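Repro:
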Amino acid sequence: MRMMKIVIIFILLSLALTCSWATNDSQSQKTISGRISDVDKVGQIISVRYTDPRSGGADEVNIMVPDDAVITNGTKQWALCDLQQFDPVTVTYYDDGVSGLKAVRIADLNQSNR
């Protein structure tokens, strides 16, 4: 009976930790705005050049674009191949801790009609 209680407590704690990690994912997301300096369509990586708000200097970050990332321009749904160098973008991303930064959403702010 005592072993059964220990197992149940262990299972409940495991579920609580899993739920906690799931809710913290949205809190660990960050947003950056800048211009695309490079698009690697084969490696599915974009490089975004932005102004660091702390230092005021220019910086660049590489962000992986997984297949499930949402890419938009206005109300249009886009694909990675639609993004071009120098496009102004806002990228919501997270650090998965293993393979680096991964995009969740990319909003291409370019007003041209491509």
